[in-house]
Structures are given as structure tokens and as C-alpha cells.
Amino acid sequence: DAKTTQPPSMDCAEGRAANLPCNHSTISGNEYVYWYRQIHSQGPQYIIHGLKNNETNEMASLIITEDRKSSTLILPHATLRDTAVYYCIVRAPNTGNQFYFGTGTSLTVIP
Amino acid sequence: DGGITQSPKYLFRKEGQNVTLSCEQNLNHDAMYWYRQDPGQGLRLIYYSQIVNDFQKGDIAEGYSVSREKKESFPLTVTSAQKNPTAFYLCASSIGDRGQETQYFGPGTRLLVL
Q: Has residue A76 got a pLDDT over 90?
């Protein structure tokens, strides 16, 4: 699975959009981009995933560049409860289903 | 409610003792996983199981054992051979590996060595 690079930490003002970047320059054509988040001392929570097209659900939007070498997770109106570590993962299907979690980005939403 | 449960939330182990962490899911998922998380680190895969009565080692299986006798249960035993067991243990499940299935995680068990 391709490696990902994320900034170790970010701050965001409450009510503003949080834009979390992820670089995955060695991504293969069949690898999906997944985003999870982990609130302190809890299990990771699935947020969103995509292959080529931009995706949106009730939690967030995922913007994938045309060359697929990077992506951005957007939380449109960050709240204090969005303070968490956010993990960007790239993974191909039918590969034993292992998800490789790195150290992620620690997002702090500031009141 | 559907979901993944792990018990206990906190577990204390004495030196040389084996302990078993419970993971149960009622999502009817085929695949189940165990991860270990150390402070400030990402998750590392210990074992996974794609189907009942079958499981494979992950990246850090030494000192651990699992069983998968029922679809809904995937207990993890931390044996005395695991010299540094203090960590946060996470169980996950997914429908399978037929495409882009996501993994759903339990709340975790924190293991501490006395």
C-alpha cells in the first residue's frame, strides 16, 4: 500500500472549515483513499473514502487531485467535538484488508 | 444496537500471566482484526481473520494468539511471551475484502502491566 504524508498537527477556529491535507504520491491506480479519525482513547471512526472523484457525506468532503497524488479532507464547519487525530490511508482492495494507520494529523478546534 | 464491543475497558496483567481480551460483533461481518496502539503512535496489525476457523498473522503477532470459533467473536490472548504488552488494543470488523469495504472499530481495551 502507498505511504501517506500528513502534517503532524493543525489548528482550526470553531465554525470555520478545517482542511486536512494528505500526500500520497506513490498511489496506484486501484488504491482508494480513506480517512478515519480517532478521538482520544476511543476506537478510530470511519469518515469517508474515494478513488478518483470527489466525495461528500454528512461528515465531510474529500477532494482528490486529478493526478491522485494528494487529497484534502474538508470538515465544513468545525466544532469542538471534531478535535481528534485524523488518519489518511491508501489501500487497494483484495489485499488482506489491512489498513496501515500512520501517525496522522492532530486537529485542535479552538473556541 | 449493532456494533463491536470490547471488554474489559481496562485490564491489568501481572508478570508471566496470560490474559484474554474479548471482541464481539453483531454486524454479521466476515472479517475481524486486532490492532495494537502505543502512545503517540499509529495502529499496528496483530492478527486478522477473514472467515471462521481461519486467521493470519499481522506485522506484530509474536507473543499473541487468537481463535475464531464463531463468526461474531475474535478473542485475543496476550501471552507471557509478549514482553511489552502495555498498550491500547483495538478490535475491528469488516464485511470482507471483496472491494472497498471499510473497517469498523470497537472502543478498545487498555492493558496495563503491574
A: yes
